[in-house]
Amino acid sequence: MLKKFLLPFFLLIFIFVGYLFFNTISDKIPFARQPDGFESSMFGVDSVSAISHLSKFIQFPTISHKPAMRDTAAFGAAIRYIQGAYPATFSRGTLQMVNSYGTMLWIFGENPGLPPLVLLGHIDVVPVDGNLEVWDEPPFSGNVRDGFIYGRGTLDDKGQVIAMLEALESMFASNVQLDRTVIVCFGHDEEIGGDEGGMAFSEILGEQNISPAMVLDEGGVIANQLVPGVDKAVALIGTSEKGYLNLELSVSIEGGHSSMPERETAIDILGNAIRQVTQKGFPFEISDPIHGFMDYLGPEMPFLQKMAFANRRVFSPLIRNTYEKKAASRALVSTTVVPTIIKSGVKDNVVPTFAKANLNLRLLPGWDAERCIEYLNDLIGDERVAVHQSEGSMYSKASNPSPIDSEAFKILVQTISAHFNDVVPAPYLVLAATDARHFESLTPNVYRFMPFRLAPDDLPRIHGNNERLSIESFLEGIGFYQRFIFNFCNVEKD
Ligand SMILES: [Zn+2]
């Protein structure tokens, strides 16, 4: 009797396990490595002068604080410097300066019917805080040490700007003709929002009804040992970036004398609300870019992880557990929230009537201010706590995920896999903001990828101390841009 009852049960389990295994085994890398006809010998790069160009470019202190604090001399000199260092490129294109320091170079292709490629970067950098002594080489020296070029901007984003220019220069010095127009856009205020650079470039293109075939910006990198379970380096291609929002929690109640306090003060109520928010947080969610990430990387993983990614609905709790362990991976699978400023109280013996806190949120695609406020109101469940958008602070929703089945994305993936044959490309969600987000109204094909290799200890160097770029990786990155332009713009060589 028992046997009869158990038989269908075991049969079901058998079928289910079979289904999981089938999904796992049939989970294949969604791209093919193919030769692309590009030879690195086609366009020579003088590595000594490339290194010297980057080194000199680092020496201009193009720091972004506020527009009013801009060192205009440094920005002016930096722009003049690249114009002089890349004569073949600048003479081939039509230069349009935007808001004084934004560089827009239009290099027209032979075929005006092809929508253009936008190569996006920025020449401003964040300030250097704290103790300069901890830098192995001074931050605005561009000095070379142990195979690395040191300085603020080497990774974010002057290394990328110079690599793009070196690639273009080497190609134009060899007299190539591009079929497709390339528009080089270098912003000068990316680190403070990009209104005068990135946003203005996008408006100029929009006014001319130009919808680029692709916008390629910084954002993802080649991550060495950064993705758990994948031994190979991963080329992270940002297909979306998280949004940015500040919310204010405020409590206003009767105060009183501190000699006979009520059980609950404004501070207690606010404290409880913050605890609810930070302990419960936002829900676990696999957004489109992370689905793409799992599709591309699952096949590269050890069997159990591969099975989890291939059957992600079934294994969702397991994936959630793994990803929620660390701050960096948690940020990929949920909207995050953290209290950053708290204000209350005026005098040591007065019970405050008012308390408020600023919450900084980074939004997954699909979350906007209204939805976050509603969600947090429910989570806090206390009508005495008001949740509002912080006045005058920056707000942007997550960018719309760019497609991973477009021709543009395929050429990008193909070029990455042909150029770096030990690297696996994968879609990705960029956690920080870039100028690329200003272009999403023009084209769905906005991708964020910088072709440099970074190890785990390199990540804190971005906006941190001892920012540096390996010479080997820099030169490999120049080759990547040559190859990408070659593949994307139908290059013809004389
Ligand atoms: Zn940047």
Supply the key terms:
494 residues, alpha/beta, Aminopeptidase, Alpha-Beta Plaits, 6-stranded mixed beta sheet, 4-stranded mixed beta sheet, 14 helices, 19 strands, binds zinc ion
Number of helices: 14
The averaged pLDDT comes out at 92
Question: What is the radius of gyration?
Answer: 26 Å
Largest sheet: 6 strands, mixed
Low-confidence stretches: none
Q: How far apart are the termini?
A: 84 Å
Please tell me about this protein's structure.
The structure is a single chain. This protein has 494 residues and is α/β, with parallel strands linked by helices. Helices cover 35% and strands 20% of the residues. The protein has 14 helices and 19 strands. Strands 1-2-7-3-8-16 form a six-stranded mixed β-sheet, with helices on both faces. Strands 15-10-9-17 form a four-stranded mixed β-sheet. A four-stranded antiparallel β-sheet has the order 12-13-11-14, covered by helices on one side. α1 (2-25) packs across α9 and α13 packs across α14. The protein is globular and about 80 Å long. The mean pLDDT is 92.
List the helices and strands and how they pair.
Layout: H1 2-25, H2 47-58, H3 72-85, H4 87-92, E1 94-98, E2 102-107, E3 117-122, E4 144-145, E5 148-150, H5 158-173, E6 176-177, E7 182-187, H6 198-207, E8 214-217, E9 222-223, E10 233-241, E11 243-252, H7 266-280, H8 288-297, H9 303-310, H10 316-323, H11 327-333, E12 336-344, E13 354-363, H12 369-380, E14 385-389, H13 407-419, E15 423-430, E16 446-448, E17 453-454, E18 468-470, H14 471-488, E19 492-493
Parallel strand pairs: 3-7, 3-8, 8-16, 9-17, 10-15
Antiparallel strand pairs: 1-2, 2-7, 4-5, 5-18, 6-19, 9-10, 11-13, 11-14, 12-13
Bound molecules: zinc ion.
Residues 122, 156-157, 190, 218 line the site of zinc ion (ZN).
